[in-house]
Amino acid sequence: MENDRVLVEGCAQLGIALQEEQVRQFRQYYDLLIEWNSVMNLTAITAFDEVMQKHFVDSLALVKGVSVEESWRVLDVGTGAGFPGIPLKIAFPGLEVVLLDSLNKRVKFLNEVIGKLGLTGISAVHARAEELARKPEYREGFDLVVSRAVANLASLAEYCLPYVKVGGLFVSYKSGSVAEEAKDAQKAIETLGGVQKDLVRFSLPGSEIERSLVVIGKEKGTPKRFPRRPGVPGKEPIR
Length: 239
Hints:
This protein is an alpha/beta fold. Helix content is 37%, strand content 22%. It contains 10 helices and 7 strands. The protein has a 7-stranded mixed sheet with strand order 3-2-1-4-5-7-6, sandwiched between helices. Helix 4 links the parallel strand 1 (73-77) and strand 2.
């Protein structure tokens, strides 16, 4: 069995003490990720310690910018292989989590993980972010929206802020320095009802890998015309 030191120590540096059952769930998640990755593209990172650090601990580094409340309803937009939503659910079991992805085969993988790990209060939804935000049960229905998706912050704001309830938060995970990108996204954030509250820079525990969290608060409702039709936010970000 692989050594869990990277995971356990990385989480400890974040102030998260994992129980043995949670460590077991992370191991099982890793095994399923590698098994499914052999037949579909889920991640380019496959070494055990690297997945533990660069996917699992990185997902939980949310606590660097936000004090997580387990009563929250959380949406992970563009979740892919389940990051950061599934690690957050494992570490904070009280969260109600919705994983959103536009590719059905990834949603099948997510459902397999949810079932095999015995997770409850979490679901995976196959939809485009621009379309699901039109449904009343999702629009402005979340305390926290997170995304590790690789997209421009102005575009991400349009994908994510319509889901955040007034008083809630949207947090974008980014690599390295994003000060310029955050500045360029300011108009989009404000247009969608948000305000940038914090930009947290840090190194991933046990490494020199630079990460940033852009923390955006929702101050007022998003105008009904947003998000625009599928594909538009990515091609024509609000400027």
